Amino acid sequence: MNLFKSDTESELEESDEFEEDSEISEEDQMNFIRVKTPQEVVLEEFKESEKNFEGKLKEFQRRTNKDIIDIWETRNLKNQILVDINNEEYLPGVFDLINLEEDSILRKILSTFSYLTMEIKSLTRNIGTKFYDPLICWGDNGNLENNDENEGDCIIEISRMMNLFKNIYDLVKMLSPLTKNMLYQINAMLKKKTTLYDKVFKKMVFHHFFDMLGEALSVLVTLDVIVSENKNFVAYWNMYNRMFLKCRSNPEPYGATKKNIKYLERFCRRLTTKILTKQLFLEYNKDLATTIASELGKDGISKNKEFYEKYMEYLTVKVKNIEEELHIKENSHKPLLALLTNYALMRALFTKKEDKKLYKKIWSLQKICPLIVVYNNLTLNVGNFLTVVCPLKKKPTLDPKSVGNFLNDTLVRFDNNFLAFVNTQFMRVVTWIIEVNGRLFSVLEDGDRLDVVVENRAHIIVKGINMAYEIKRTLKQLLFLHQAFGKNLEQNILNGILQCIEMLKSMEETIQRKSTRLSNYTFVMQKVFVNKIIRKLQDSQTLLRRAKQDPATACMLAAIKMALRILRGGFGTARETIFLHCMDFLAHSSKSVFKKEDLKEIDSMVIMARKIRDWKYLMGKSTRCTFLYWVRSLVPTIFKHIFKKFHRFKRIRYVCQALHDPIKMLRNVQHLESPNVAIDNYKKYITKSFNEVIVQNLCSMIEKDLRIQIHGILVPKLKQQNPLDEAVYDYMNFLSIDDIILFENRINLKSRVSQYLSEKFYEMTALTPLDWKTYEHIRVLAKQTYGLDILETHLPSKTTDQNVDILQLVRNIHKFCCTYHYNLHTQAFIERTGETKQIKTIGIGQMLNSLRTHGFGFLNSAVNTIYKYMIKLMSMTSEFLYDEYISSPLLIEAKEYKRSQSTKYSFQKAQQMCKTMKALGQVEGMPYLDKFREVITMIGNALGYVRLIRTASIKDSSTMISFIPKNLEEPKFAHYCEEMGIDGDLKKAAEMFDESINILFKQESEAKDYLRELVKGLDGVFVGDENKHMRQFYILVPALTINFVESLRRAKEKVIKKRQVGAYISDDGFAVGLAYILRVLHQNKKFGSLNWFESIEQNLQDEKDNIQKARQQLTEEVNVEREINLKKIKVSGEEYTLLYYSFNAAQIFFKEMEEE
């Protein structure tokens, strides 16, 4: 597919498999991803903003509290939330700024050039966050430890990215005619046959125009680098293409039609074979040259000698300028990439012309800049680019000869010179910070010129931006070179890296503190440089008016007039673009209006004005440490290094600030369900590393130090620590630091250590109570030495009765119902045994004490929470019975039982039903029937918990009311006070006493039966026609009881074993749950018609009789086996009897309501 051909022409070249549907236009076919209207986009953005408003408020509160503000030390700034600067003019376009009535030629050229360059800027604006970030992070979920995904997840991730791929496809399609139009414009101007060529265009330069052309082509190079660096592209697309084989033949299950599948497959084929191929830029240049040659024919660009000379002139000048900028450490990576793309385009247009000198010059630029930082973690080497994209037919002698050896030598040179570089930059940064704090807003003295002072302030800001870019660029090159060659970082190099991060974040912090005042001076600083340019132009205008008038002179005068008018209105992006095109006219080599020094001075002032205009963006970009995300495996090593260098531990806060920078990039992730998935995984990894390396090590070392000091005193003849032989650390360097802000968490190391030591000493005292004095000594020593507030470790000799918190149980009601077992008669919950040797019990006394702690007003809220939980469990019951594999056997069994007209449900049929249910499979490692039995038990446990709460509240009321005389039916103390004329506090006390007595009597006589309320809440809800599947629940009860008894017997057998995990002796929650469900479903009578427990008794008696009959006829050994079977039958009979009693007792709870 040729990108410069129409889509219809491209598709005619495709195979018959993708034959075009003539009834549907190409535009409709490619719009299988529906383009949203502006109204829909705005409405969705508004809905999303409204949806997340509460979350944003909480985040705002979290980010604007005192501790977080203290990072930037902005306590003196009142009511500051955000300071933003925008110098752009909101105009319809560049045509509102270009208004030349005298010179139509200049107006046409400026309008065309400015429109095309502004269109490129519009397309590439925010391209990093829109396209590059999602593509770079594709396949990465932020989890460094486990990033493996199955094929289904990969296909889903590609599906989420299809809209992005469609936008990238559209972007490349829009760049195609745009770049071709730019070349056509210059080609039309640079022809000898044209009238104005010799007079005007011959000596003009097109530097800014070619710069923007190179910037547009740089987008394609960046896409190629992303595809080649991200290994997930090939693997994921292979999986996605395999999906078409499945859905092409049967698209209906995928919610698609054959036409949609065909359009999607065609689009994916175009995308993978043309856009995401690692050779997009190379193929793009070839297609562009071929298209221009076919469209222009004899007038093609390849035959335009003047165009070639002008292009070579631009490239030669650009190479020289970039070399100078790289020598003075300017941030020229983006211009260098534009130079490479322009050179490759020139070679594609003029294939027969090879300038070896220019090739060598560009090749040698890698000695100054070994790696071009294209974007984020993407790097490019000049030599590799030239070798792959535009090699010479005859390879000349190049310096360096081998790119691989050169990069290896560069890495060694970087390692050797890095510490010297860091030390130099450290002195420069310290000097710059002093200048910002001292000279940036110093008071003007007598004799100071305002413009000179403002200019000096601007130079301070730009100096900081340049230094930050230099530090960051060198740091990224060093890290990525080490990563590429797999070479480990030495300790001294790692220390230099940390110092660079510290310098970058300290510069950001310094400028952030001055941002409010600096925002007020931005326009003034920018205006100083603009006025200098205006004075230069006015001098040149005077000279031109005195010169001989010709078309070239007239054009230059018009350009100066336009430039002056543009500069007097500001220096936004649109005005800067028009001004730079005017300067291309004014750099006329045949006129001596501007000297080279003047042009360089104007260029430097333009750069200064631009950097001052965008200082906030540039300073943020130059100090942002997003690259740490791609080397996050070094984070634990970095923390270890910081921990060892305890005397400089305060740099940890700068590292934490730097680790927060990748969050902005991760917010642009599109392949995951939500960007928060990657953000949360990244935060968890960093937080885990911080806790393990910093917090845990610090706690352990302080504990060790305290123990050594105490044991040196308490233990006689213990060898003392020699500070000359062993290093002694001053841990106050760690504990005296302010709170560390790690993402949204505020970490106080002193409180963390205090909490750790408190828990540790308490646990040790609980294990060995006799050592409590030793730990008390350690506690006092920790307070005196480190200022740590550790809780007292001495435990009382007696225990309190309250060991449970009702609030905590309600919050974790699902865990409580799973891990505790209910005893109906003692009203106690016993924890299921685990790995530990201790189990917890909860009775009426513990619940009463907990209720007194929280107040009895909590009861209604607790019951409401349990009611919601009961609804969830009943829904799970309904889902289980709705399954056809379960409901069908139950329906058949119910019909057979009715047809048999039997008075008892057979025990053998119940056993067969058990086997049928177990054969259905497993869920969460257990059979379906066992899982359903656990759900019923959880329902019973929840009801038992409600009963325990009610009993505790009644006990409290009866206990307190026992102190009130029984003949005091209605208290009238307030009435007596009125009769006696008593007023004031005594009367209020009497009223409160009367009210308290009334409440106590009311609580005792009208205590709420919460079980009744729970039955009323769900009574009849699951009985209607929509719940027909639950009408056969009663027929499943026999199988459930058999399963319950078997499970209970296994649990009791574990009690006498050595490993008692999962043992318990009572589980009456099952009986209560059965009684509740039968009552709610109105199936008590149906279950009673089964006479199930009588059938159990008869079956057990039959088994006993059979064993007794066979005992006399068998040998002694077989008789022993029969005795064992008799014991088993006896145990089973006891369990069934206990279940029967518990079930009947549970039915009493709901029997009264049934009678009513």
UniProtKB/TrEMBL annotation:
Alphabetic keyword roster: Coiled coil
Coiled-coil residue windows: 1093-1124
Record-level GO cellular component terms: endosome; WASH complex
A Gene Ontology biological process term: endosome organization
Domain WASH complex subunit 7 C-terminal: 988-1151
Domain WASH complex subunit 7 central: 627-967
Acidic residues bias locations: 9-29
Domain WASH complex subunit 4 N-terminal, residue spans: 52-625
Chain intervals for the UniProt region annotation (Disordered): 1-29
Highest rank taxon of the organism: Eukaryota
PANTHER family assigned: WASH COMPLEX SUBUNIT 4
Protein name: WASH complex subunit 7
Species per Swiss-Prot/TrEMBL record: Euplotes crassus
